[in-house]
Amino acid sequence: MGMKKKPVTGMKDIMPQEMAIRDYAIGLIKDTYKNFGFTSVETPAVEHIENLTSNQGGENEKLIFKVMKRGDKLTSAAAKLVEAGVDGEAIGGLSDSGLRYDLTLPLSRYYANNANDLPSPFKALQMGNVWRADRPQRGRFRQFMQCDIDILGEQNIIAEIELILATTTLLGKLDFKNFTIRINDRRILKAMAAYSGFAESDYDTVFIILDKMDKIGLDGVKEELLKEGYSEDKVEKYLGLYAKLAGSDNASADKGQVSIENIKTIKTELGDFLDTEVSENLETIISSVEDAKSADFGMMFDPTLVRGMSYYTGPIFEISMDEYGGSVGGGGRYDEMIGKFTGQSTPAVGFSIGFERIVMLLLENNFQVPGQSDKKAYLIEKGMPSDKLRKILEMAKEERAAGKSINVVIMKKNKKFQKDKMQEEGYTEFVEFFADREF
Predict the structure, then answer these.
(1) How many whole angstroms separate alpha carbon 51 and alpha carbon 133?
(2) pTM
């Protein structure tokens, strides 16, 4: 049987045109975030299975690519499972590590292990592949690049403000406009649920259903909550809060101002169920970002924003982009995760852009990498005498030293096809060299 040419399901080969955009985006990301004081770090692709399955990653923990034990450890573990009457193929007892499903948990372990050697607060930039055994779809793969910035050791909301400003500045440099930063706070979600009479044990179920609001609407959320067996009084009281906010949202009004008014409304409705500091912090984040932003976007308080990770403890945010029809990034505060490694509370907040989705949109918009117009190709006729070949290479050397991109290749029989393919890679100038001609 011949070897398979196509990549594994959910993975993809990256063609030169896309790779050029990816390389450009990575360089721009690093330069932009560096200007905001972030420092690059790197963590291993493989994490301890105990860390990956610590009930921090929400639904992602069901999508872990597990790594089996090796050598004698694998043989011993399999034997013990068989002796216990368990199928020897049962992966649970045979795995001791797994591929990371995000960058936040590995960063928390990294910080817990190296905090004494790091500044406080620590502003970290991390880029790398992660893996999830998810169902592949448009813009979603089983292996994909994530790009995170995190601020560790800072309790003040200046951390949230800096993360949002850095991320939106980057998107502006990539020519994205009119996107929206949606913001909420996990404590508001919990206060609204408590105010409506839901037990704390019900929160996760209620939030999972609420997270579908943009897909199934208010009536759909109501129907699903009732199907879960919650009383109509609780459901009506809960959704009544959202109905009041929806009525005050005016598409022609300033999103930031409408959002601040909605936060005040929520605080008034919830009363003692919500700490005043929570609502005031959100108002400050929105107004501060609006005043200091350098890109064209809006800020919007969205009380239906949930975020799937259970580790979030405070403000949460997402990037909504109309041309994509969904989120292209998000993050939030996770003050309790590092403490699970150290036993000491450590404030932390992060923001991740959907790198793969950003690249997909750039490709669909025919984004041209700046500087590609300088790419030149030398097409050399086959059988070029050695003295002339050395002269050509000397010419290429001089142009490269002057900063130009020069690709020296042998001329193919189908020269037009060769040029067409090179033009797709950004080559705009071609110089042909023939053995029987002077140059």
Answers:
(1) 18
(2) 0.85
